[in-house]
Amino acid sequence: MKKLEEIESFLIKARAKTYAGDEGRVKAVLDNSTQLEYRKDNWLYRDIYYTGKNTFYGIETVFHNNKPIFGMSYYGNWGSMTEKEIDEILRGALTLNPETRLYKKIEWKKGNFVYSCDPDLKGGIREIGGTERITKNGKQIYVLYYAGSILTEQV
Fold it and tell me: Which of the four pLDDT bands, split at 50, 70 and 90, describes residue 61?
């Protein structure tokens, strides 16, 4: 369906232009959060997240004509790595695999690191969920759990 394809295409591009591309930071509307945004025409992507001691959680929302049409929440833990170290690996994986955190299985390797995204649901963007991991020398050093869905196909 064209509408679902439009939503997915915009979401992939927005993720690449914000966290993966290390861009899109705006003044956060919620105290102590980080907010990333990407706008194109009548579309808006907003990612709001909080970072704690080696953990983070957040929510992504896609809007069309100011109406929310897709949402996804996530929680992650990067263990004993620094945020900078995880960002380097994760941004590389996401840049080269833009369809991650959706419904396709992804695996990417860089040196001793392996990035994988294992979806629990594989039917498409209507309903997504899964686990993202990074291992180093076979030991898990990062995990992220995500779940989300289309709120409306009316775009």
Answer: very high
The answer as to whether 39 is a domain residue is: yes
Query: Domain count of the chain?
Result: 1
Give me the DSSP letters along the chain: -HHHHHHHHHHHHHHHHTTTTT--EE--SSTT-EEEEEEETTEEEEEEEEE-SSEEEEEEEEEETTEEEEEEEEEEE-TTS-HHHHHHHHHHHHHH-TTTTTTS-EEEEETTEEEEEEES--S-TTEEEEEEEEEETTEEEEEEEEEEEES----
The per-residue pLDDT for 55 is 93
Asked if the structure places residue 46 within a domain, the reply is: yes
Print the domain residue range for 115. 2-150
pTM reported for the whole predicted model:
0.88
Tens of pLDDT along 63-114? 999 999 999 999 999 988 887 888 888 888 877 776 777 778 888 888 899 9
Residue 155 within a domain: no
- Asked if the structure places residue 88 within a domain, the reply is yes
